[in-house]
Predict the structure.
Amino acid sequence: MPRHDPAHREPTPEPVAYGLLALCRAGFENEVAGELQALAGRIGLDGFLRTRAGQAFVTFECPHVIPWPELAEACDWRSLVFARQLLPWFARVDALPDRDRATPIVEAARTAGMRFGSVALETPDTDEAKQRSGFCRRFAGPLEEALAKAALLRPRERGAPELHVLFTDADTAWLSACRPGTAALWPMGVPRLRMPREAASRSTLKLAEAFFTLLSEEERAATLRPGLRAVDLGAAPGGWSWQLAYRGLRVTAVDNGPMAPSVMATGLVEHVRGDGFTWRPRHAVDWMVCDMVEQPARIAALVADWVGSGRCRHTIFNLKLPMKKRLEALVQCKEIIHKRLARGGGYELRMKHLYHDREEITGYLTLTTPKKA
Ligand SMILES: C[S@@+](CC[C@H](N)C(=O)[O-])C[C@H]1O[C@@H](n2cnc3c(N)ncnc32)[C@H](O)[C@@H]1O
């Protein structure tokens, strides 16, 4: 093989990046921009934000190159509430030709100075961009082939970074690289979950997504198993109760509204007609989940009190956010929870704007074992 063949040139030794790129639900760009700005501040990153309302992505662009490991270290999609995906980007390719998009993308990928273990093709989640999802499916194979031919793709190399190619329009691609395990679980952060027929409401997918997104595999195995007990506040018609019963948990479903017969048919759900704000279990339970439509501050206080008083160990809850003050409401809810639990043994709070969330976010709160002195 001739050494000057550009397809076989060795990647440069120092991987670099130019900033951060985040995907979100269209209409939530301001919230993601606020979070990106705060993240950049925490890691001492200079640069500027670029976004447009409704485009479903936000970029943070640095005036100078940054060593990629520095950004990759700080980039985990779980660290931002409103982002569905968070990546360190290293190249933007404009004016992609219709006939051969692979060549310029491969050339740009080479400038990252690294070899990749996998490649994912993504688009922002807008109606306009969705029209390119067919193209992404068709283009994935040819792009993988071209990257492999250029010795940039090594699928069997353990720990190799993932390459993400985001098509923001028909002829523009942003290239990002991240450490394995730090990108969203599904391309574009859009879960592939089957709607179970017996589950009563589409809301069931929200809790299913929360289990995958907010809990690790080990946490799911330890806390979602047959024999454990759960309370579902605001349960009707029963989509969330069904998710718990499906995993073998016994559920007390609290709601004045009717539960779906298919959910009651699991034999694991007891329906109690009552007020979710005042109803209390006789004995402590493992889980409390809450999907009542109420002021977010009221829900935050309720879940913190359940955990703080030992009524439950883990909770997943939905916070319906006011449209114009979403970040402020999030901060206020965090403060309410912190005030109630700070003097206890320690807690862990994770929040995410899930794909199945609209004007709301979903939280997971759990007690952690107190550290021994
Ligand atoms: C969004 S729905 C819940 C959907 C449910 N998670 C599912 O998957 O089918 C909200 C529910 O909260 C209930 N709710 C609202 N306020 C309540 C309260 N104070 N006590 C009990 N239930 C309440 C409503 O009756 C309604 O059924």
In short: The CA atoms of residues 104 and 257 lie 58 Å apart.
